[in-house]
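re: that complex we talked abt at group meeting.

here r the seqs, copy pasted straight from the sheet so there may be weird spacing, ignore it
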Amino acid sequence: MSSKQPRSLFQKVWDAHVVEPEADDRPAVLYVDLHLVHEVTSPQAFTALAERGVKVRRPDRTFATLDHSTPTLPPNAKGERPYVTPQARDQVATLEKNCREHGIALAGWDSPHRGIVHVIGPELGLTWPGTVVVCGDSHTATHGAFGALAFGIGTSEVGHVLATQCLLQRKPKTIRVTADGSLQPGVSAKDLALTIIAELGIGGGTGCVVEYAGEAIRALDMEGRMTVCNLSIEMGARAGMIAPDETTINWLRGRPRAPQGEAFDSMASQWRALVSDEGAVFDREVRIDASKIQPVATWGTTPDTGIAIGASVPRPGSPSAERARDYMHTQTVLADTPVDVVFIGSCTNGRLPDLRAAAEVMRGRKVKSSVRALVVPGSEAVRQQAEAEGLHDVFLAAGAEWRLPGCSMCIAMNGDLVAPGQLAVSTSNRNFEGRQGPGARTVLASPATAAASAIAGHIADPRPYLGVQ
Amino acid sequence: MTPFTTLTSRTVVLPQENIDTDQIIPARFLTTTSRDGLGKLAFYDWRYDAEGRAHGDTILNRIAPCAHRILVAGRNFGCGSSREHAPWALTDFGFRAVVSTEIADIFTSNALKNGLLPVVVDQQTWNELAARTGENATIDLESCELRFGNHVAKFAVESFARRCLLDGVDTLGWLITHLPAIEDYEKRVAA
Ligand code: SF4
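got the structure back, here u go
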């Protein structure tokens, strides 16, 4: 490959990880630098290894945590955790055992590092620019905020990586989304991401790697960039990436698993070269004007149904849209829709700035008596920092619940769920039918919008609560 | 893996678009540590009421699954989470192929590793096929043809995955044969 050919950020990371190039009859063998593991999508992979008598090849490149099926309520007086079912407890015990047997580091119950896999990877400095990161979880794209090529894999592939540290991959197509202009006050990374998804459609990025660029992306903090990359899969994209810059480098400096001292500085100078070259070619280019974006919430049962909160729900143009409208039965104007539950958390919006944004709205106010509000920090570290800042007091004083870290109501497999028919405004990433419990109706929005909706008792634009306009 | 060459079976049509993996198998069933026996949980919230009683509102409860091995589904089938429990549930239910106009990326990859063939066809072919629910169709992986009535439609399958399906190759075994190259790479790059 000629080094003069302009290359995209994606292409640079891909090229550096090709162990065997792809050919017509076989995919590339691609090297994986970091493999993140959690309890739900790994047990069958460890079983497959055991059946074959194979060991985990690089436990040092593997890191595990407990997040999906873990209870968010504390243990009882006897120290027993309130698992939703014995099966959930077994699943956690299975990962603990697999990690012990294979020498894999686990951020378990007793670790101050435990949390949602896509929150703790960056937080610990495990996620580096220019690396390949995988996890048996579709929101692995989150780590692309650091300029890593990060994507979700299935359980068979989890087994492939455990056994060989490699994957068989065809080179994906690329899209560049450039967000020009600046976000207005009170408009967040979540609103930007939901707008991009609405623009491209739920299948608009299928199989592609999306690079996010432009002034509005550069202006985001790392947590905002993670929110944007996290949601890439909601338009079908394999991965989202943002070129590393000083924001990235400053954020990573001093993290426990990042390089330290001089080693960091020398890595950082390599990371600065991880940008798409002038003239790099993408399969598709999309531009959006970030200055026009309003706070957004979804009206349907797919994440591409975001509209401005004050807007009217569009008239369905297909049987699927009709089914979605009937399932959600929101009011004609989205903002008039009453809310039963508010969930603030998840790997999309469970980080410290997300909680600060929600607290800013809730401070000195009360959650409407008809609303149940749940705030779940994304990790133990987020929980500790939030408590040090007194954010939990703000939530508790407002009448919200403050829980232990985990995926919680995002996926509703630990017992935290929305009752049938109830409408939840959620800072998570999926509003599919039943995602938050059978019959649950989910509206996706930003932390500030979710908090404002908890106070108002209906879907609410957060800006008046933030003193904007 | 069991080889896949040719499949002739009746179809089941689920015309909804964007059938996501939470529909295929709801998250609350993902606490299993096994991959077996998930067929009874396939499309659970479509097939059972709140008390866990099967109802006849969905075609899935009105067919004999093993006689209907071809699922014809609306655009963007399998979007959402990366759970391989989705193809495990579908194959255990009895399906061996999914035909749609668009199939999500991770689902495709997972399905191919489990002997469930994702077949992407154009809208017109899909319309014709969907109009014949319950009739026989043939999926020929050797010639990459979908045949039904007097229709013949070509489809594409990634060449390596196709070879693995036709020959019943185990991809992990194949990848393990590349260990020397992987070790070289590590010496070269991660020194
Ligand atoms: S918070 Fe939700 S989307 Fe994120 S890893 Fe957990 S279940 Fe998946």
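couple things i noticed - The two ends of chain A are 54 Å apart (CA to CA). Chain A touches chain B through 69 residues (CB under 8 Å).
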